[in-house]
């Protein structure tokens, strides 16, 4: 549940999309905007700044300048809440599953991901988020 501009609660779920490739970020935002409120970030730092307790799911690029997707993920995990995170990567996502020290993301998407893959991944993220956050 998020707040509308006037501060009243709404049932619309909020998804944060972060990727340093602006065209990709904007495309993902368009795909998701029919069903969700979408915030965009074009760097790891912007993702940290755009994130708050109203964000229900995050789609996060693995390789961004400055803060990587893994670094952003670790910082988001330190905050309160039950936001689920999908890693968007151009490489095989099995790297994180095999490395015991690597962050464990909730979903993995390999670039180029299709609209259907992105929508399905976000839906799975939202299904797994805490019941108090579901709309």
From TrEMBL:
SMART domains: REC. Residues 14-126 form the Response regulatory domain. The keyword Phosphoprotein applies. It comes from the Archaea. The modification 4-aspartylphosphate is found at residue 61. Pfam families: Response_reg. SUPFAM superfamilies: CheY-like. CDD domains: REC (cd00156). GO terms for biological process: phosphorelay signal transduction system. Keywords: Phosphoprotein. PANTHER family: REGULATORY PROTEIN (PTHR44591:SF18), STRESS RESPONSE REGULATOR PROTEIN 1 (PTHR44591). This is Response regulator. The lineage of its organism: Archaea, Methanobacteriati, Methanobacteriota, Stenosarchaea group, Halobacteria.
């Amino acid at each position: 549940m998020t707040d509308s501009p006037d501060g009243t609660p709404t049932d619309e779920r909020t998804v944060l999309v972060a990727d340093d490739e602006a065209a990709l970020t904007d495309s993902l935002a368009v795909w998701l905007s029919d069903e969700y409120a979408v915030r965009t970030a074009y760097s790891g730092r912007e993702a940290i700044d755009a994130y708050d307790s109203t964000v229900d799911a995050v789609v996060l690029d693995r390789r961004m300048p400055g803060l990587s997707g893994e670094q952003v993920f670790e910082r988001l995990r330190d905050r309160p809440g039950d936001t689920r995170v999908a890693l968007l990567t151009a490489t095989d996502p099995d790297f994180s599953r095999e490395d015991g020290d690597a962050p464990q993301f909730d979903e993995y998407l390999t670039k180029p991901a299709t609209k259907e893959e992105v929508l399905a991944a976000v839906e799975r993220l939202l299904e797994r988020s805490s019941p108090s956050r579901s709309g």
